Automatic annotation (TrEMBL):
Transferase among keywords: yes
Swiss-Prot/TrEMBL keywords: Transferase
Alphabetized InterPro entries for the sequence: Glyco_trans_1 (IPR001296)
Gene Ontology terms for molecular function: transferase activity
Name listed for the protein in its UniProt record: Glycosyltransferase, GG-Bacteroidales peptide system
Amino acid sequence: MNNKICNNSVKLLFFINDPLIAYTGVTKKIKSQIEAFDNICNSVFVCNLSVDNRKRLFSGEVVSGNKLLSKIPYFLRYEFSGIEEKVIANKINVVYIRYTHFSSPAFIRFLRRLQKLGINIIMEFPTFPYDEEYKTLPFKSNIKLLIDKCFRLKMAEYTKLAVCFTKNDSIFGIPAFTISNGIGFERMDYISSKLKSTYRAVNTDVDFIAVSSLEKWHGYDRFISGIYEYIKREPSKNIHLHIVGEGREVNNLVRLVDKLGVEPYVTFHGHCTGEKLDELLLKADVGVDSLARHRVNNFENNSLKSKEYLTFGLPIVKSHRDHSIDSCEYFFQCPER
């Protein structure tokens, strides 16, 4: 991060307008970011929603949450009371917002009040562009996007910097700064020790692993169809795809595996975390990243999972551009279609 914004005089609020659900990839990433900010800032505070979406927490303390109104879907995502008082009381001078598409009149007013306090506002865009992703989501999610579209251009008036993971000069009129997902040194040391102590017998089987939230843009249906075509050739090498995760696409993938008759070559492990996930990664030979980002009009990506694959010594299969790894030799670029 730019040292003009983050240094020892900075008191930073990391604002997440979502719950922090234990053991998910997103939560692990956010916790790593918080640790990184801790190393370069005077102090770091965290504001997020509770797991049940009914309370807003400021470093663990409840700052807002109406029992009746919180039953309304997405209510707290558009209600920001109590935060400004905490910002003032803790003399916070930088607010870093993980932006997950919640612009609204209330959010714009919130930004305006922060700016009047002389606070630098930084907006992180985990994915950009994101509009096309909503075509695969339920109707209520598209209502959220519609509200977002009406007000998001106003954010530029109050936001100093946009942080993104793909190359953009600006986002919604906000000057953009590109960073990359990565693995913390402690995690890298742990994986390195595991790799050194794990014996891998040489065999003719190739185990692929695909870890994700199983959305349409991950494109695992393409890989499953590829398995079907591959085994028709009676190849000398056996292959197996291990799918780890749960999401909207899982039933479609299960049906496709059944339809093509490739059940012996595909295993669905469901949601795995911790040592169980590490064991699967240690046994794998190749990591499968997204294979269909083009389905949501997104041709560039910078996933955390691809960096974890590489840390486990796994080459990657992907279909998009990734500026952080495209200069290395350890990936196979498959066509978008």
